[in-house]
Write a structure and sequence with these properties.
heterodimer; A: Rossmann fold; 10 helices; globular; B: mainly alpha; disordered N terminus
């Protein structure tokens, strides 16, 4: 990983709201965040401070509360209690400052699928108030880099999973946000598209921007991220740099299994007939 | 994999019949509402069948009953042919791609599936109707002898036809275009229903059945109707014609089974639609991207962008298209039908603005969960106002010319130009009022529109939808009251010379009240963004 935290100051200069060159404002500060759906507690009080300019992985098993947390942080879901600040601005009090600074790729929500890829980018860019020519220029470049130029006039509803993730990423990047939130950006994506997405994200963070993405693929997180937060059963189990979270464990996978308490569960004791033998 | 499990396994046919029975039983077990609907549809189907059978038996021996029976069989066959296209989920055993991973040979599969499709309400109703037709036309022992194989053949041909069509079109049905077509299926059925309604009125007239004769002459040689006419021929002693009629139906059955088995084999040994779609070339829509043609005339910025998206969705999204088509169709139908029936009134022209105005309701539900993209670009009441106003403008782009045409058309049709201006003015005011309440209802009572199937409200949100619609329309009507009061006052006080001012006043009032509604709704949209997103994401 080549991105040092210092690099983000170069980007923040135009911002005018950072406190000089000293300790930068964290990208995201979460305090006491909770959410329950009926009787089920999805997020049970999360406190988390995510530094700016890092490639941050939010990892946890299925149903840990990753999507719920990211939805609340990005203003798509109202928390039951707690505070979220992005770049020092409260998400719910100051949406103008927040929404222009973030890009989001949610999981499980649709895009406007009856538009072509090209039309979708043209729509979302203009919706965000960018000038028309600029939108078209950026859209063409993003489509090109994400290898979607050949399908830009096809309706998004006919796209494959990988293509949907890529067009969603393009839509999230179009207004050049400071912080990018990606919920499971590599889920169901073929290796070629995954590599393309990865390349774009690495280029994006290299210039000092922050990427926060959720995943349950530890190898991926380990190779991409320099800062990790582990979430399980709606709580943060560990947070810090990759080395801090990994600790003495040989890999993030091992450390993760230890943290979520799934360390030594033996699978398959009763499956002695399984194995492609005689019958 | 060992082959003994195939050879020594359980017989296929009972297995599929049991599968079909389980599916029918499980149809009953879902929610209480579904169970009631299911039983109700079964009862209605059986009552309908009983009615038709009794009618056919009553018509026995009348001059044109042969043509009627033949036509009925023809319609029945057509129904079986198109049913899998519009209700692909109606019979889950219809989709052979579900069986593709099982080690099954086509020939036993064809026999088993055909047997399975003879189980159910549809085949039972078909059997009843075919029997009724046979009874209506059979005359004498020879006819009775022919009737037995004829009835069996009719049912078999219908079932085989549905299976063969479903198999041949499964590519289409599992593709996006096929699912779009299924959503529009309800519309075709509504149009077909009108056709049946008109036809029934015509046939009900004295000697109406004679209209059928020319059609019957053709259909009696088309299988499986040819089997029904064979019964009649046998009764008249025309054994050659009877044999030919039966032979034609047998030939049709053999050809259908052969075609079905061929397509089944092809289908189960070739890539499915998802693979084919992925490699499909990027051929649609010209490649200069951006905004073209008349779309260039739309304003810049958020307004034009949102308008363009709304209009594109009205055309491309099957649910939006269906909703627009229904509004436009019914809005036109009300004045036309009431005029044709002779009790026409120029006031029926209000249906145009009422139905088009309803399009403003549940704006965000029409976006489905893609509303998050809109929500992520709304931070101030100003943003929300622009968003709502652009949607209202896109609606007006269609609604105002349409309302104008309907009001002019109704006036011309009735020759009643004296109230043209006031009706036109009141229509515009009503449209504005519905835009206002629609915007507010979109903010306060959003609900999900499932993108597939024929439902327009997600389960559990029907109450919200009703409140939104009826409450909104009631408030819309109340909002139009000042103008209505002005109209009545002008009439009562005999100021007929001033009635023309209702047009400019109505237009201004419509714009004003719409503007007010958008202004009131906008801050509520901003405050409720997450709640709206949650409400519209249940589809």
């Amino acid at each position: 990983m080549t991105n040092e935290p210092e690099q983000n100051t170069g980007r923040a200069e135009g911002d005018g709201e950072r406190t000089g060159g000293g300790t930068a404002v964290p990208a995201v500060r979460i305090q006491g965040l909770t959410k329950r759906f009926g009787t089920q507690v999805a997020v049970a009080g999360i406190d988390l401070t995510l530094p700016a300019g890092r490639f941050i992985g939010l990892v946890g098993p299925n149903g840990a509360g990753k999507t719920t947390t990211l939805s609340m942080v990005t203003g798509l879901l109202r928390p039951d209690s707690g505070q979220v600040e992005i770049g020092g601005h409260d998400v719910w009090q100051d949406p103008v400052a927040v929404k222009s600074r973030i890009g989001v790729l949610p999981e499980g929500l649709r895009l406007f699928e009856r538009l072509s890829g090209r039309e979708l980018l043209s729509y979302i860019g203009r919706l965000r108030g960018l000038p028309g020519d600029e939108v078209d220029k950026r859209a063409a470049q993003l489509l090109d880099v994400l290898d979607l130029s050949g399908s830009q006039n096809k309706l998004v509803v006919d796209y494959s999973t990988g293509m949907r993730k890529k067009i969603g990423l393009a839509a999230a990047l179009l207004h050049n946000p400071e912080i990018l939130f990606l919920d499971e950006p590599f889920e169901g994506v073929d290796p070629v598209s995954a590599q393309t997405i990865r390349g774009v994200l690495e280029r994006y963070t290299a210039s000092g921007a922050t990427v926060i993405f959720s995943s349950h693929v530890m190898e991926l997180v380990e190779s991409l991220c320099d800062w990790v937060a582990v979430i399980a059963a709606g709580r943060i189990r560990a947070q810090g740099t990759l080395a801090e979270v990994r600790g003495d464990a040989p890999s993030l996978q091992e450390a993760f299994l230890e943290l979520v308490g799934a360390g030594r569960r033996r699978a398959g004791q009763n499956l002695d007939w399984l194995g492609g033998g005689a019958r | 994999m060992s082959t003994e499990s195939v050879a020594g396994g359980p017989a296929l046919t009972p297995l599929f019949v049991r599968l079909k029975l389980s599916l029918l039983r499980n149809g009953l077990r879902q929610s209480p509402g579904r169970t009631v609907a299911y039983i109700a549809s079964v009862v209605v189907g059986l009552l309908f069948a009983a009615g038709v059978v009794l009618g056919l038996i009553a018509l026995r021996g009348t001059p044109h009953v042969g043509a009627l029976a033949v036509l009925l069989t023809g319609i029945l066959t057509l129904g079986w042919a198109v049913m899998p296209l519009f209700f692909p989920s109606g019979d889950e055993t219809l989709d052979p791609t579900r069986l593709v991973m099982l080690p099954l040979r086509p020939r036993p599969l064809v026999v088993s599936l055909l047997t399975a499709s003879l189980v159910g309400i549809g085949p039972f109703v078909t059997l009843a109707l075919a029997t009724g037709s046979a009874v209506a036309v059979a005359d004498g022992a020879a006819a009775a002898v022919v009737a037995v194989p004829a009835v069996v053949l009719v049912v078999l041909v219908c079932a085989a036809l549905a299976r063969a069509v479903a198999t041949a079109s499964v590519r289409l049905l599992t593709s996006r275009r096929g699912r779009d077509l299924a959503v529009l299926g309800g519309l075709f059925i509504a149009i077909g229903g009108q056709g049946v309604n008109i036809a029934a009125q015509k046939l009900g007239s004295p000697d109406g059945l004679s209209v059928l004769e020319p059609l019957g002459d053709v259909l009696r040689w088309v299988p499986p109707a040819s089997a029904v006419s064979a019964i009649e021929d046998a009764g008249h002693g025309a054994y050659g014609r009877a044999a030919a009629g039966l032979a034609l139906t047998v030939l049709a059955l053999v050809l259908l089974l052969w075609w079905w088995q061929r397509t089944l084999t092809t289908l189960m040994t070739s890539p499915d639609s998802s693979t084919l779609q992925a490699v499909e070339k990027d051929s649609r829509r010209s490649s200069d991207g951006g905004v073209r043609g008349p779309a260039r005339l739309l304003p810049d910025g958020r307004t034009g962008t949102v308008m363009l998206r709304t209009l594109r969705y009205a055309w491309r999204d099957p649910k939006s298209k269906m909703s627009w088509a229904t509004s436009i169709g019914v809005g036109l139908l009300v004045p036309v039908v009431s005029s044709v029936q002779g009790n026409g009134s120029i006031y029926t022209a209000f249906s145009a603005s009422a139905l088009l105005g309803m399009q403003m309701y549940n704006q965000f539900g029409q976006d489905t969960s893609a509303f998050w993209m809109v929500a992520s670009a709304i931070s101030t009441p100003r943003d929300a106002y622009l968003e709502l106003r652009a949607r209202a403008l896109a609606l007006s782009l269609v609604a105002i010319p349409y309302v104008t045409l309907v009001v002019i058309g109704t006036s011309a049709f009735l020759g009643d130009w004296s109230s043209f201006l006031e009706i036109y003015g009141l229509s515009l005011a009503l449209l504005g009022a519905l835009v206002a309440t629609g915007a507010l209802a979109s903010a306060l009572f959003p609900y999900s529109i499932p993108s597939e199937g024929n439902k327009n409200v997600a389960p559990g949100q029907a109450a919200i939808a009703w409140i939104s619609m009826f409450g909104g329309v009631a408030v819309g009507a109340v909002l139009s009251l000042p103008l209505l009061a002005l109209t009545i006052w002008l009439h009562v006080s005999g100021r007929h010379d001033l009635l023309w001012i209702l047009l400019p006043v109505g237009a201004l009032y419509g714009v004003g009240v719409a503007q007010l509604g958008l202004r009131v709704a906008a801050p509520r949209v901003v405050r409720r963004l997450p709640e709206i997103l949650a409400a519209v994401s249940k589809g």
